[in-house]
Amino acid sequence: MRLKYLVIFTILLFKAPLIRSQASLTDSLFHPDSLRHIVEVLASDSLNGRFTGTVENFKAALFIADEFRKAGLSHVAGNNGFFREVKPAWFNVIGAIKGKSKPGQLIIFSAHYDHVGTNATNPFPNDKFVADDDQIFNGANDDASGIAAVITLLFIAFTGEELGLLGSQFLANELEPDSIVALINIEMIGRHELKNPRPYITGYEYSDLKRILNRNYRAYGDKTEKEFFKIDPYTKSFLFTRSDNYPFALKGVPAHSVMLTSPEDKYYHHPDDESWTLDYQKIKKVIVGIAHGATGLVKGTDTPRRIKGIY
């Protein structure tokens, strides 16, 4: 099914139909306590690490769908409410705000809500930990932190990322690539190293999205900060190909991940990736930065260069 009319526009600042003022947006949706609540629910022990296909993973999907509903997002025709089935018991969660000026074009904000579960389900044998007191890989930073941003800016929560980008591959094959102006995937924004306190863009060299985000950030956000979004300092870790932006990039979409955390982070795929380890003020700053940076995309004044030559 082609979802060409699935118009995923962010509720940015003065563009938001549900937000009365810029101050109310920052104070309510972007408040660190609101972000903390989302992360604490998704990273709770009761959700058992959110492994794809489990009851707990579906409970996480239900929670995200309810947050989409509260934010005033619409269902997409052909889906089951906010759910789009990838395979039995696997669901992407999708919500939309339909654009008025260019309703046939899409801007997608995404993150993945699955994680590796417990010691019993973790698909990465080298990452297994033996801890009698904690067998649950809670995934607070990976990627409940990204979901907190997507619920605020919105719109797609992918499943199956930890099992090989399965949810994003499914949707990338359904959508018409030429209708997607850009995809901004939000991944692991809850912790940072002191030497790298700013978010970075994976695969930044393949399009001019980084330049566009920084230009708009200066125009609509902090005019004194020359470059809020940095180049990826971890290119040897191949992060561009390891997250849900990649299936769309393969089709030419300017699709990149915004990240803050190092791939060498000590809590990555670790049972101690808990909600209390995250910096919610920093998460807020990254989300607000993305909101400002994407303003030109949402207005229709910016069109990033298409990606070519990736196989």
Structure description:
A hairpin with a 2-residue loop joins strand 1 and strand 2. The chain has a single domain, classed as Aminopeptidase (3-Layer(aba) Sandwich). The longest helix is centred in the first third of the chain and has 16 residues. It contains 9 helices and 8 strands. Strands 1-2-4-3-5-8-6-7 form an 8-stranded mixed beta sheet, sandwiched between helices. The N terminus is likely disordered. The protein has 311 residues and is α/β, with parallel strands linked by helices.
- Helix/strand-derived class? alpha/beta
Give the N-to-C terminal Cα separation: 25 Å
Strand adjacency order, main sheet: 1-2-4-3-5-8-6-7
Indicate the CATH topology: Aminopeptidase
Work out the count of structural domains: 1
Look at the structure and name the CATH superfamily.
Answer: Zn peptidases
- The fraction of residues in strands falls at 5-15%
Count of β-strands: 8
Instruction: Report the order of strands and helices.
Output: HHHEEEHEHEEHEHEHH
Report on the biggest sheet. Answer: 8 strands, mixed
